[in-house]
């Protein structure tokens, strides 16, 4: 009985509230190029899977990738879905290839467009997360969504997305994207100019990892003055994001993987906790003889504590959570303890 309730708990928490990619068949040949680019090797599904583990959302958010008849990408609050139109990227693909085909291989152009897609997707998910969790925002929401995207990219170290920035820069030099999408209403748009958005992204990257981003910063001609302030800018952004998202953000600031708990491994861990009698003293949500697993996760959120917790569980402890001592559990293999601790801290 107890195990069933446990399994249902895990199911309810990991299976339904997540981001989920829904591909629709492209309607014209230009869109098919982007479809192939994203669909290959399930790269997009994997990326989105990582996101689902990193950011907690209260409902399932479908990410619909389709031909829309216009270049666009948006979050729609009424049904809490994100739509990514092939056209936005097929158009950029064509423009980039036309302008730079003689200098860049089509693979390079494709990579730049795929990176742009991932960035745009994260930006839209930023809007989704702000809405779903009613996150307060000062300044422009569009800039906040860029910060959300950049923070995620830099924290899980998917740098390659930003490393393609110089290629976008080439395009921006010709004013291509803004003219293409926004025409004469450019200055009244809710987004900052594309060049500024790009410079911000590179600044945050440079602020966090100067070595990684030095070349890109030079390529987009960032001023010395701005560059010297990027580390502070990044630190402030990180502090704000972590404080606003709180325990909805399931990654620590070292970019350590938010414990990769799939449905299967969650069930395996359920039976492990049963087998080793942890559930005699612990419950996921409530305090028993020992602290609730959720409270343990909350207390150590963002900290680098895995080794310490493994040690405490195996050696036993007292006084961390109160007077009642935890027994030493030396006879359990350390690999199993590690799996359980990772799962507990991922809650
Ligand atoms: C006999 C009861 C009992 C059993 C069995 C038990 N625990 Fe605990 N556990 C406790 C108590 C009590 C504490 C709090 C100890 C303290 O305050 O220092 C605790 C603390 C913890 C902590 C937090 C440690 C810290 O340093 O904050 C973790 C993680 C944990 N237990 C995991 C497990 C796992 C995994 C198992 C099964 C392998 C398990 N426990 C089995 C009673 C138990
Ligand atoms: Zn936006």
Strand order of the largest sheet: 1-2-4-3
In terms of quaternary structure, what is this? single chain
Low-pLDDT runs = 1-15, 257-264
Rg over C-alpha atoms, rounded to the nearest angstrom: 23 Å
**Number of DSSP strands?**
4
What does the average pLDDT come to?
Answer: 83
Largest sheet: 4 strands, mixed
- Number of H- or I-type helical stretches: 17
Question: Strand portion, in percent?
Answer: 5-15%
H/E element order: HEHHEEEHHHHHHHHHHHHHH
Instruction: Please state the structural category.
Output: mainly alpha
What percentage of residues falls in helices of 4 or more residues?
55-70%
- Please tell me the total number of domains: 2
Report the bound ligands by name, code or SMILES: heme C, zinc ion
Distance between the termini: 22 Å
Gross morphology is: elongated
Structure summary:
The chain is mostly helical. It has helices spanning 2-14, 29-39, 43-54, 86-100, 106-132, 141-155, 160-163, 165-173, 176-182, 194-208, 210-219, 224-227, 230-245, 263-275, 293-300, 306-315, 334-346, and strands at residues 19-23, 61-66, 73-76, 81-85. The longest helix is centred in the middle third of the chain and has 27 residues, at 106-132.
């Amino acid at each position: 009985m107890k195990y069933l309730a446990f399994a249902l708990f895990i199911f309810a928490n990991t299976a339904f509230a997540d981001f989920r990619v829904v591909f629709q068949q492209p309607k014209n040949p230009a869109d098919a190029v982007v479809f192939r680019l994203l669909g290959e090797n399930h790269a997009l599904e994997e990326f989105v899977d990582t996101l689902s583990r990193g950011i907690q959302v209260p409902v399932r958010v479908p990410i619909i990738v389709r031909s829309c008849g216009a270049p666009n990408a948006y979050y729609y609050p009424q049904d809490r879905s994100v739509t990514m139109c092939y056209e936005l990227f097929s158009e950029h693909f064509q423009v980039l290839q036309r302008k730079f085909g003689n200098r860049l291989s089509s693979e390079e152009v494709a990579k730049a467009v795929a990176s742009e897609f991932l960035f745009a997707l994260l930006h839209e998910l930023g809007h989704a997360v702000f809405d779903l969790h009613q996150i307060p925002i000062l300044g422009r929401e569009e800039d906040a969504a860029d910060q959300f995207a950049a923070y995620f990219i830099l924290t899980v170290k998917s740098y390659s997305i930003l490393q393609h920035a110089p290629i976008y820069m080439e395009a921006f030099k010709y004013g291509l994207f803004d003219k293409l999408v926004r025409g004469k209403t450019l200055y009244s748009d809710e987004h900052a100019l594309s060049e500024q958005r790009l410079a911000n992204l590179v600044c945050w990257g440079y602020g966090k990892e100067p070595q990684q981003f030095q070349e890109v910063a030079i390529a987009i001609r960032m001023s010395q003055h701005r560059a010297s302030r990027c580390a502070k800018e990044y630190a402030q952004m990180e502090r704000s994001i972590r404080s606003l998202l709180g325990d909805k953000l399931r990654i620590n600031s070292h970019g350590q993987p938010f414990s990769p708990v799939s449905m299967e491994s969650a069930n395996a861990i359920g039976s492990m906790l049963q087998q080793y009698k942890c559930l005699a003293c612990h419950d996921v949500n409530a305090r028993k003889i020992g602290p609730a697993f959720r409270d343990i996760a909350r207390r150590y959120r963002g900290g680098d504590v895995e080794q310490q917790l493994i040690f405490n569980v195996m050696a036993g402890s007292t006084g961390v959570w109160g007077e009642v001592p935890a027994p030493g559990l030396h006879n359990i293999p350390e690999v199993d303890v590690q799996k359980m601790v990772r799962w507990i801290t991922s809650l």
